[in-house]
Amino acid sequence: MGEISLGFFITAHGLGHASRAAAVIEALGKLHPSVHFFLFTKVPQFFFEQSLTVPFTRIEMETDFGLVQTSALSADLRASALGLSRWLPFAPATISSLVQTLKELNIAAICSDISPLGLEAAKVALVPSFLIENFTWDWIYDRLEPPDPRFKEAARYLGPKFVQADFHIQTTPFCGDRNSDLVSLPVSRAVRKDRETTRAELGVKAQEKLILLTLGGTKGATLPIPAQNCHQDWFFVCPGAAEAEERGPGWLKLPYAGRFYHPDLMEAADLVVCKLGYSTLAEAWSSGTPVLYLGRPDFPESAFLEAFLASHSIPSSPLTLEAVEQGTWGRKILPLLDQKQRKPGLGNGAEQIAVWISNHLAVLQKP
């Protein structure tokens, strides 16, 4: 590829999709340094400044509706259904304006994770489109409980929007086989600092076990440190839990837009305690970090992520919300603490996807 511009439409449903998109963008940029990336998204600017070393321009835009989150672990389905019914169908004026923007920016192709709006704009603008997903919104809306006719209607409308992508990439672990063109390894952002460097910057002593508490990038959300069964050599690091860095005996709270890069934190950790989400799972798989997780039985993706943990022998154990609220979950930490083990040669789906997209764009651009 020569000097071209690529557009990425990225959902702001948590930071997992943005993490995956950033990993692919970085890998593409390393292959083709002359490419400029335009990111259409509501994900904050700081996230991409921290994640990317390649040139990009962020254009703030709501690229899908998703769900109305009331917390890191729950969604308001009634409000979601109402909002979705107002957001769909796409207004012709919205598509027309977006197509004009794509033409003005000379966008050569669109990648979508998992924005149906970007795929629709690509179709109208006559530029090739790549869907990158481990689930799509129509698949989610069809499976939410209790059923709501507004979700079913949205699924019927959005299904064809996702199918119209010129190329379909599924990232492991994905939810249901959708007859994709490429199935990649798990996708995560690359680690930049070694374990020892990050631990030293965090102030973690050599003999201490670093336990990472994360709720997947939700600002201000954190898991409370267990009130019982804690050991003196445990050190808890809590990203996104404070407005500024706060330190206490055996713990450190980090701000949402802090100086520490999450894949480096995962690399440094001996255990991650988390809401089970795609990017956290992919980082744990890549770094060999054991997982103590809160599942989300009301979210259709969760069962597939749990199945991946089991089928790939990742040291893990489920955690109940009741145990977290009661502070009694400390006893679940010890059995997992010494099980971190990196498996060499795992690879990263980001590089797979970047090479695949690059090859297909080279073919498409031949005169």
UniProtKB/TrEMBL annotation:
InterPro entries: GHMP_kinase_L-arabinokinase (IPR053205)
Stored SUPFAM superfamilies: UDP-Glycosyltransferase/glycogen phosphorylase
Highest taxon above the source species: Bacteria
Family annotation (PANTHER family): GALACTOKINASE, SLR1395 PROTEIN
Name assigned to this protein: Glycosyl transferase family 28 C-terminal domain-containing protein
Originating organism: Candidatus Lambdaproteobacteria bacterium RIFOXYD2_FULL_56_26
